[in-house]
Amino acid sequence: MIMYLPFQSRIKMKLIFYIIAAGSLFIAGCKGATDTDRLINSKASLPSTFKLSELHQKVITSLINKKAGTMSILYGTEHFKNATEESNLNEPGNSFTLVTWQQQDDAHWFGARIPGELVSAETVNIGNHTNFVTYQKFTGRNLLLSADTTGQNERIHFILTQKPSIIP
């Protein structure tokens, strides 16, 4: 013998079924909190021996080289920020650091590219006289000082001709 439920009882049963199905999907879709070690990009971290904060440098601009697959950030002293507004980059006391990383895909955001392995850090310091400029290049994960001095005048020119980012 087949029993049929009244119309309103069938609607209540469907409603309960949909609520249970939606709740099950909601619970199945939730995952635990992501481990903080997976959220921090340790590959892109600077070695502890290379401290930009001690140099009192702040972000001036960022660059992306799609051909080489790298991204860079130019840091400079607050003195540099004021000098750029006056278009006088060669003012004595200015200090710059250009840090470059290989790009990598972001595992947490589809299509995004983030810094990967550390490639190099280049420093330019303008001494007490505008004709006294020092340049150093540090390479590799541990930022070891490079003895290669070829092309340093072009790199100094490249760093000194960067335009600061406009921040509203």
Described by strand count, sense and barrel closure, the largest sheet is: 6 strands, antiparallel
How many individual helices?
A: 4
The tally of strands reads 6
The shape, in one word, is elongated
Order of helices and strands: HHEEHEEEEH
* Strands in their spatial order, largest beta sheet: 1-2-3-4-5-6
Please give the alpha-carbon distance between the first and last residues.
77 Å
Low-confidence stretches: none
Fraction of residues in helix: 25-40%
Q: Structural class of the helices, strands and pairings?
A: alpha+beta
Strand content: 25-35%
**Averaged pLDDT:** 79
Radius of gyration from the CA trace? 28 Å
Task: Produce a short descriptive summary.
This protein has 168 residues and is α+β, with helices and mostly antiparallel strands.
Structure description:
The protein has 168 residues and is of the alpha+beta class. The protein has a domain at 44-160. It is built from four helices and six strands; from the N terminus they run H-H-E-E-H-E-E-E-E-H. Strands 1-2-3-4-5-6 form a six-stranded antiparallel sheet.
Please give a handful of descriptors for the protein shown.
168 residues, alpha+beta, six-stranded antiparallel sheet, elongated
Topology:
Elements: H1 7-29, H2 36-39, E1 57-65, E2 70-77, H3 78-85, E3 95-105, E4 113-126, E5 133-139, E6 144-145, H4 152-160
Antiparallel strand pairs: 1-2, 2-3, 3-4, 4-5, 5-6
